[in-house]
């Protein structure tokens, strides 16, 4: 396939940035999207030009690092996939593809397609953990009875990879889906009850401090989430927050 790539290039956080056009020829439909960018970058390096900076690690849809807009859609046209799982067969010969970084105040651009998502880490540090007694009397988690529905729901929430597609897709740049997933995975399990009150209060407070917006209730976050995290988690977090506010 022959394609025209229009990629956001930005030297650093202070640079204005602009869209730069790159023609691509003989692109195999079996390439992943990131492999296609690898080929582009090798061509740029061979020409003595600066390669396009983008995040990647596992390339298996687990790490959440390959976050970017492809033709205005988080992670591209396919659903329930990350960019590294997107393949060029999703496009047609002669297509023009726009590639841009996430757009959110709390996710400042570092360079080109890379944004700083450390705000998510700080939210996790505020309460995304549990206390475990390691004095030698630790109870085996497998011996603690947990309702099957609760266990499955907690596991579903825990599949969140923190890619930021929910924030990028929300017109208010809300992180509610991410935070609610991290709250839910512990709120449903007995191990998470020790810090339950402080957890939700601290994580929501940190989310606000980072500059994320309020939930719009439009559901764009769930639609664009590559792991299909449910909006039910937001409702659960709101209940946890209300309960914790009375206790606090």
Number of domains in the coordinates? 2
Strand % is: 5-15%
By CATH, the superfamily of the largest domain comes out as Alpha-helical ferredoxin
Number of helices: 8
Order of helices and strands: EEHEEEEEHHHHHHH
Alpha-beta content class: alpha+beta
Quaternary organization:
single chain
Q: What is the third-level CATH name, the topology of the largest domain?
A: Fumarate Reductase Iron-sulfur Protein, Chain B, domain 2
CATH architecture of the largest domain: Orthogonal Bundle
**Regions with pLDDT < 50 over 5+ consecutive residues?**
none
Total beta strand runs: 7
Largest sheet: 5 strands, mixed
Features:
two-stranded antiparallel ribbon, elongated, Fumarate Reductase Iron-sulfur Protein, Chain B, domain 2, alpha+beta, Ubiquitin-like (UB roll), 5-stranded mixed β-sheet, 35% helix
Describe the protein's topology.
Blueprint: E1 3-9, E2 18-24, H1 33-46, E3 69-70, E4 73-74, E5 96-100, E6 109-111, E7 114-115, H2 118-127, H3 148-158, H4 165-169, H5 176-187, H6 196-209, H7 220-224, H8 232-247
Parallel strand pairs: 1-5
Antiparallel strand pairs: 1-2, 3-4, 3-5, 6-7
Helix pairs in contact: 2-5, 2-6, 3-5, 5-6, 5-8, 6-8
Question: How would you characterize the overall build of this protein?
Answer:
There is one protein chain. The protein is of the alpha+beta class and 248 residues long. It has 2 domains: 3-111, Ubiquitin-like (UB roll) (Roll), CATH 3.10.20; 117-247, Fumarate Reductase Iron-sulfur Protein, Chain B, domain 2. 35% of the residues lie in helices and 11% in strands. The protein has 8 helices and 7 strands. The chain has helices spanning 33-46, 118-127, 148-158, 165-169, 176-187, 196-209, 220-224, 232-247; strands at 3-9, 18-24, 69-70, 73-74, 96-100, 109-111, 114-115. The strands form 2 sheets. A 5-stranded mixed beta sheet has the order 2-1-5-3-4. It has a two-stranded antiparallel ribbon with strand order 6-7. Helix 2 runs parallel beside helix 5 (176-187), helix 2 packs antiparallel against helix 6 and helix 6 (196-209) crosses helix 8. The radius of gyration is 20 Å and the shape is elongated.
